[in-house]
Structure formats: structure tokens, C-alpha cells
Specification:
Elements (H helix, E strand, L loop, with lengths): L1 H16 L1 H5 L10 E3 L4 E4 L4 H23 L1 E5 L9 E5 L6 E10 L12 E4 L2 H4 L16 E11 L10 E3 L10 E10 L4 E5 L6 E4 L3 H6 L9 H10 L26 H7 L20
Parallel strand pairs: 5-7
Antiparallel strand pairs: 1-2, 2-8, 3-4, 4-5, 6-11, 7-9, 10-11
GO molecular function: endonuclease activity
Protein name: EcoRV family type II restriction endonuclease
InterPro entries: Restrct_endonuc_II_EcoRV
């Protein structure tokens, strides 16, 4: 099974390199300029990240179908908007072989050299903890051969260059500034780019590391520990009480028992070597700023 996983991932990595040209114009901007109505008026796309992500997914679906057909897979799209994953690749020859591919987008941070805003890598809630659960997931988690992030990194256009109030005609298409540009696509198993921090607010989402070079090389905090530790950490995340050297619960300022939400604390709790944690690159402000 490891050979099947490697072959699929290698092909997906090669395929991802083709996608930059597919979505980009001649100067590196996004080919999608806006929405068009029946009178052929074009409305500029908002820079809202959710809108950008959804349009990119729609733009890329034909290419994913092409990739699947060329490599002997069927594609199953997530039945509901909030289900995991975005795409399930199911082998035509052996339907027991399935790959979860989640399309994730994020933007480079202007004030920090080499850093992005980070990805959310899916929930560590019920379907992650209960590997046979069918809640909010296309197929049970345990049925997937591998869980992969198809990542898209881009740079946002300056807000001063975007005028969402303008309406243009087709012959003025070149006058519309692309809201995003300079794409980098990659494919990687999600555990390899994971951090030990949640990805967003109070939701049970796994967060990625943020240093772009480490993302592209798969140098997440679990690199030296392996997928087993990634699974166990995120299954237990926020569930175990923190205790002091005497075994007493450690309390928050509000009097609640602190939970283990860092990999260092978790490995100490499990009696493991914390030096195996791959170090996270600290963000540093751009000198020009």
C-alpha cells in the first residue's frame, strides 16, 4: 500500500506543477478577472479569501478530472459544503484504494519575508477521532489510503489597485487588475505540513506551519515523529488535563483546568523526547518595513 501511496502522491506533485500556467495570464496574474452578466458587463472579483478559494476550485475541477482519468481514478466530490475532503479519488481497478485531496489556499504575508497566512488542514473532531464515523466526511477517515493537501499560495494585489465599484465591458478586460497573482501549487500529505496549533478561532481545525520553504519541503513539526504521532496528538488535542510535578491540575486565571494543546507538553506527558519536534521558523518583520 505504501508503493500505491507514493506513486499517487508523486503523480499529483508533478500534476500540481502544471497548474500555475493553467490559472495565470502572461504576466503572472490570475486569468479570472471577474463575473460576467447577460449584458456582457464584467464585475471585479472581491478579494475575499472564501470567494477566491471557491472560484479557484471551480476553475481547477476540469484539470482534476483529467488527472483522474489519466491515472485510473474516479472523482467523488464532497456531497455537502462543509464535508471533508473536497475531492475523493477512488481507484477504478480497486475501489478500496481512496485518496482524500483537500484544496487549500492562502496568501503570502507582506510584512514577513517568506511567510504565508497558513492553511487549515481539516477538522480534528469526530470523524478524525472516530475513524469509522461518517459524520461530515465523504468516506470514513480510515478508508483513505492517504490524506493530501493540494495547496495554493498566492500574492494579493494591493487594495489601491482594486476597484470593486467599476463595471467594465469585454473589450476592457485588460484594464482589470487581477486580485491575486504569482501562484505556487504543491501537493503534500497533510501531516507533513502540520503545526501543533489550531488553524482557526474556536473551531476544531488543524493548522499548518507558515514558513513557505518548509511547507514546500514538507517540514512540519511532526517531520521527525511521523504520522502516528500526528494522529495521536490531534486526537488528544485539548482533551487531556495539564498537571504540575505533584500531579495537581494546573488552572487558568479563570479557575478552569488547563488542557494540553502544545506538542512539547504532549510529548512530556507521554514521556517522549521533545527534541524530535521539528522547529517552527519564527516570523521576522521585513527589513524594509
Amino acid at each position: 500500500m505504501s508503493d500505491i501511496k507514493k506513486i499517487f502522491l508523486d503523480k499529483l506533485k508533478d500534476f500540481s506543477k502544471e497548474l500555475t500556467e493553467y490559472v495565470s495570464d502572461k504576466v503572472g496574474g490570475w486569468k479570472v478577472k471577474g463575473f460576467i452578466d447577460t449584458e456582457k458587463s464584467i464585475y471585479t472579483i472581491s478579494s475575499d479569501t472564501k470567494i477566491i478559494s471557491k472560484i479557484l476550485e471551480i476553475q481547477l475541477f476540469p484539470k482534476f478530472r483529467e488527472f483522474a482519468d489519466q491515472n485510473g481514478y474516479d472523482i467523488v466530490l464532497a456531497e455537502m459544503q462543509n464535508w471533508y475532503p473536497d475531492l475523493s479519488f477512488v481507484s477504478k481497478e480497486n475501489p478500496k484504494i481512496k485518496f482524500a485531496v483537500d484544496i487549500k489556499t492562502t496568501y503570502r504575508l507582506e510584512d514577513y519575508d517568506g511567510f504565508c497566512n497558513g492553511f487549515t488542514l481539516g477538522s480534528h473532531g469526530e470523524y478524525f477521532r472516530e475513524r469509522t464515523s461518517a459524520k461530515n466526511i465523504q468516506f470514513p477517515y480510515s478508508e483513505y489510503t492517504s490524506h493530501i493537501c493540494l495547496g495554493i499560495l498566492y500574492t494579493r494585489a494591493l487594495s489601491a489597485d482594486i476597484d470593486e465599484t467599476r463595471i467594465l465591458q469585454l473589450n476592457k478586460l485588460d484594464e482589470i487588475t487581477s486580485v491575486i497573482k504569482d501562484f505556487v501549487f504543491f501537493a503534500e500529505e497533510k501531516w507533513k505540513i502540520s503545526s501543533d496549533k489550531s488553524g482557526s478561532g474556536n473551531t476544531a481545525n488543524i493548522g499548518s506551519i507558515r514558513f513557505i520553504d518548509d511547507i514546500l519541503k514538507g517540514n512540519g513539526v511532526f517531520k521527525n515523529l511521523g504520522e502516528k504521532w500526528f494522529d495521536e496528538y490531534w486526537i488528544d488535542h485539548g482533551k487531556i488535563d495539564q498537571k504540575d510535578e505533584k500531579g495537581k491540575p494546573i488552572l487558568t486565571p479563570k479557575g478552569k483546568i488547563k488542557k494540553i494543546t502544545s506538542l512539547k507538553t504532549y510529548l512530556k506527558y507521554r514521556g517522549e523526547d521533545i527534541s524530535k519536534i521539528y522547529p517552527v521558523r519564527p516570523k521576522r518583520k521585513n527589513k524594509k518595513k
